[in-house]
């Protein structure tokens, strides 16, 4: 497999609305600003309904934002023609949808699924691509090459879905809950494969996950809250993101101690903001935000 090299992604003021059957608008994303560097590994976290899957689908060019811009490298994919978007999805950005079977053809073999995943790519462009067998070996499924997908275990299907996603040597791999409903052993195997892909080929990797153990393996976590980026974790340190109108979301594990409505004192310096509880008469800051 050639070194595809990762590419960066950037969202600027991204808003997304869904229109329900009853004609109501649901605001899934309400102003997302986010930059992901080439070759970064990022996990999206956040409560159900906070907009993680929507953001992933927009980054993958599967849906278009209602407003705002999304850049893949220098290309504005929010304004791209359908033809260019289809080409981008076929080669540069691979999206693994939630649930392995949504990414696979169940009634045919593992080997054929890999063939189908490259159907939109001209054969001349696949000269240096790995063979189906090489890909299956990489995900530990060489012995299952001729096995029909519907007879495979959940872990095997998820590893096959990953092999199919990278069969076109994408620069970005987006995976929605790639380890949900897997045993611990299978979960760890899939997570290891994702990190190995990034190490070996520089692929930019973004996953959505509800599993803290999975998120902890990523150097950067982005926590969504109410359709916005709430907080971030980088190399073990926590960061809060100042949103529109100066809104600051605390990381959710702090909300029992600092519930909504808590009146806090703010002391702001040029490079430091100290937020403290007025009841704290010791004067020692309880929370320190840089
Ligand atoms: N097709 C749709 N039609 C209408 N509303 C939708 C649609 N898809 C998502 N939504 C709504 O948009 C909001 C964001 O949904 P989204 O699936 O992106 O969140 P999520 O954080 O990925 O949730 P989960 O963790 O449960 O998958 C939610 O309020 C959801 O109900």
Automatic annotation (TrEMBL):
Ranges that cross the membrane: none
Which PROSITE patterns does this entry report, sorted A to Z? ABC_TRANSPORTER_1, ABC_TRANSPORTER_2
What UniProt keywords are attached to this protein's entry?
ATP-binding, Nucleotide-binding
User: Is rRNA-binding one of the keywords UniProt gives this record?
Assistant: no
Which portions of this protein are annotated as coiled-coil regions? none
- Alphabetical list of SUPFAM superfamilies matching this protein: P-loop containing nucleoside triphosphate hydrolases
Residues forming the ABC transporter domain are: 9-251
The reply on keyword Zinc is no
The record's SMART domains line, in alphabetical order, gives: AAA
Pfam families named among the record's database cross-references: ABC_tran
Task: List the record's Gene Ontology CC terms alphabetically.
Answer: plasma membrane
Q: Which GO terms describe its molecular function?
A: ATP binding; ATP hydrolysis activity; transmembrane transporter activity
Its protein name is: ATP-binding cassette domain-containing protein
Give the source species. Answer: Nocardioides antri
From the broadest rank down, the organism's phylogenetic lineage runs: Bacteria, Bacillati, Actinomycetota, Actinomycetes, Propionibacteriales
């Amino acid at each position: 497999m050639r070194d595809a090299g990762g590419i960066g992604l950037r969202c600027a003021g991204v808003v997304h609305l869904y229109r329900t059957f009853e004609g109501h608008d649901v605001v899934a994303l309400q102003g997302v600003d986010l930059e992901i560097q080439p070759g970064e590994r990022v996990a999206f976290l956040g409560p159900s309904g906070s907009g993680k899957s929507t953001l992933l689908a927009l980054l993958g060019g599967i849906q278009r934002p209602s407003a705002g811009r999304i850049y893949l490298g220098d290309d504005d994919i929010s304004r791209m023609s359908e033809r260019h978007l289809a080409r981008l999805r076929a080669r540069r950005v691979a999206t693994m949808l939630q649930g392995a079977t949504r990414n696979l053809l169940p009634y045919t073999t593992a080997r054929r699924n890999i063939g189908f995943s490259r159907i939109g790519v001209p054969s001349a462009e696949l000269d240096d691509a790995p063979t189906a067998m090489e890909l299956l070996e990489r995900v530990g499924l060489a012995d299952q090459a001729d096995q029909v997908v519907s007879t495979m275990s959940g872990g095997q299907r998820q590893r096959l879905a990953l092999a199919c996603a990278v069969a076109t040597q994408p620069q970005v791999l987006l995976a929605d809950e790639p380890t949900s409903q897997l045993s611990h052993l299978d979960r760890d195997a899939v997570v290891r494969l994702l990190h190995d892909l990034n190490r070996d080929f520089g692929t930019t990797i973004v996953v959505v996950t509800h599993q803290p153990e999975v998120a902890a393996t990523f150097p950067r976590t982005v926590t969504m809250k109410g359709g916005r980026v709430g907080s971030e974790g980088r190399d073990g340190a926590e960061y809060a993101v100042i949103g529109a109108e100066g809104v600051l979301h605390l990381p959710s594990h702090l909300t029992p101690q600092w519930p909504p409505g808590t009146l806090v004192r703010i002391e702001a310096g040029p490079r430091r903001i100290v937020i403290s509880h007025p009841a704290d008469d010791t004067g020692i800051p309880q929370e320190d935000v840089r």
